[in-house]
Structures are given as C-alpha cells and as structure tokens.
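Researcher: I've got a protein sequence and the SMILES for adenosine-5'-triphosphate. Could you write out the 3D structure of the bound complex as structure tokens? I'd like something to compare against our soaking experiments later this week.
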Amino acid sequence: MSNDIGIDLGTTTIMVYKKGKGIVYNEPSVIAFDKKTGEVIAFGNKAKEMLGRNPNTIEVIKPLENGVISNFSATEQLLRCILKKVVGNSLFSPNIMICVPSRVTEVEKNAVMDAAEASGGKRVYLIEEPVAAALGAGINIFQKQGHLIVDIGGGTTDIAVISEGTSIVKSSINIAGNTFDDAIKNMLFRRFKLQIGDTTAQKIKEKIGGCISIEDEETMVVSGKNSDTGFPMTILLDYIEVVDILEPLVLKIANEIKIILEKTPPEFLEDIENNGITLTGGGSLLYGLDKLIEKNTGISTHVAEGALACVAIGTGKAIENIHDINFKENATRYFDMSSMRKNYFRGNNNEQNKKKNIWSFNEIICWKRIWRN
Ligand SMILES: Nc1ncnc2c1ncn2[C@@H]1O[C@H](COP(=O)(O)OP(=O)(O)OP(=O)(O)O)[C@@H](O)[C@H]1O
Ligand SMILES: [Mg+2]
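Model: Sure. Here is the predicted complex with adenosine-5'-triphosphate in place.
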C-alpha cells in the first residue's frame, strides 16, 4: 500500500495529508530537545506547551520562519518524528509533496528537499504554496481562466494569479497572522506597559480581533505582567483598539493585491472580476479581513471553506494525482534540480545554465529531482 503524503510545512502549523485518508497530522511547528544529549523530548502540541515554560535543560525551537527553514537540523528532526508518527515503521517510504512559499530561493528549496529526503522521504516534490492552496480550495487550476488566490498564513502572505496549473504573477510578503499578534503585543506594551505572551496575543486576535468597525463592540479582560513593576496586571481591552492597529496591516496586504492586479495581463482581469478573490490560510480568518480587502480592491472576496487546511489538502491532491497532472493534464512541468545542483557545486552556474535550468519558474507548478536508477 502506498504511503504517499502531502505536507504543508507552515511557519505556525504543520499539516500532513495522507493518500486516501485526508488530514492525519495537524500540530504546531515546534520541537523540544534535551540540551545535553540533543535527544528530541517532544514535538508538535506537547512541544508548544513547553514554550516559555521550559527548564534550562530543554531547548524549545520553532524551526521555520516566514515559511522557510531557519534551523535545518531541527526541521529535519521534526519531519522525521512526524513521518514516524504518520507512516509508522512501514517498509514503504512515502513519496512526499511539500509546499514552499512562492518567493522561495534555490537554497531554501534545496533545504526543504534535503530535509524531507533525510527524514525518510522516497521521492520528494515541491509545490508553490498558492498553487496548492488553490487546488485545496477546489479551484480548477488547469483551466485557461485566471484565478486570484491569497494565502495568509502565520509568517507569509502569498498572492498569485493562477491559470493552467501555473502562477502567472505572484508575490509573497511577510505580513500575516503572526504580524497581527506582534502588533497586538506591541500596542499593549506601548499603551498600558502590559507584557503578554504569543498565546495571549493569539487569543485576543481570535476572540475580539478584527480590522473593520462594528456596532456591537466587544471587550476582553487581558492579563499579563506590568513591565515597570514586574507584577501581574489586568486591563479591559476594547475591540476598536485592536482594529486601530490591525486595519493598517490588512491594508498593506490589500495594497500588495492591487500591485499584483496591476501586473496581471488584461485577459485575466475579467476572469478575476467574475471569479472573485479566494482567501486561504489561518490569517484570512481575522474578522472583517475579507470585507476590507473587498472594499479596497473593488473585487468580491471570499474565504475558502476549511481555509486552514487548503494548502495541506492541495499538496495531498497533487501527490495523489502526480501522474495525471504530469501526463493527462500536461500541466506539471518538472525541474531538474539534480543538474542545477551539479552545476552549482561545480561552480559552473553561468548565465546559460541559469537560463536552461532555473529561471523558468513561471511555467512550473511542481519541482522534483531527477533520479537515474
Ligand atoms: N480564527 C482565527 N482568527 C484569526 N487568526 C487565526 C484564526 N485561526 C488561526 N489564525 C491564525 O492563522 C495563522 C496560522 O495560519 P496557517 O496555519 O495557515 O499558517 P502556516 O501555514 O503555519 O504559516 P505560513 O503559511 O506563513 O508558513 C496564525 O497566525 C493563527 O493565529
Ligand atoms: Mg501556510
């Protein structure tokens, strides 16, 4: 039986989709090590619980930053633990489809491939996050029609116009869910000298957070530490105070969408007006975000069903249909990373090779290394 899996390697959450089973793993991107022995103590939910409470002997790491690997060996170990959990000790190593943000560099792409291979993947494929998000949102990306998809995660917002399985124009910015949390934390510190942790900031965002004014404004009791006295402190936070700091951030995302629209070839603009903008990712669940983007772009905007899982489902669909995508739809153009690496390591990465091997990204939805066996 095949163990093939799709992985959404997110900054905040890692989700795994298993062929025929759906989402089988959905936990925070956190791992904890024993500092002395280097042994993995916990990963996922258990490791997240240790964040900020760990004793000196334990190191708790978030190995992904802005959608890319910031700590290679921790990512590899985390993936190894996850693979063990989802495929067990099966004799068959899984083929893996794994997502990368659209702005990712060659070095970062290689790092993801290396980590997935080293952690036990047989054949590893990469897919651009917005393409996976569109697949997972149920959009037929193989049509000639253009679709505008915006995936707002924890670390990055990926924006892309997709048509015939490929992104025509794309952009990726570092304003996303975690930026909203940081803004809330900074505001509380500035206004009230109140220090809170990431989890509290996230709770505020989900409970009374928003980016548009409403009539029935809620309040929330927030507890933390007074930065002057070091003592516990409690305040009553108004909805509007959160809106004041989150609205400008969402407007920056809307602005980036407008820039993408300006760059979009005119033949796709009518499709986008008709199809609207599709939002995916946890960040898109912020109250009022869809409405504010709609108001600013003038294009109808909706949050996809199951927005948090779209990318993972998309990677899963891609691995399930890897042969169909390749042969029937003829929309997956593969990229020979092995030759790129050879050239790179031989110091032979000249302009001609770059043209031949690397710089045709707009035509690609998946990458794989070429195996010669
Ligand atoms: N109901 C909600 N309201 C507002 N924000 C939410 C909600 N649920 C989740 N989020 C936020 O969504 C973000 C995580 O989304 P997601 O899982 O799509 O990110 P990721 O894939 O891990 O990150 P990235 O794609 O940037 O690497 C977090 O910032 C989280 O706080
Ligand atoms: Mg994501």
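Model: The radius of gyration is 21 Å. Residues 8, 10-13, 67, 153-156, 176-178, 202, 205-206, 281-283, 285-286, 308 surround adenosine-5'-triphosphate (ligand 1) (CB under 6 Å).
Researcher: Great, I'll pass this along to the crystallography team.
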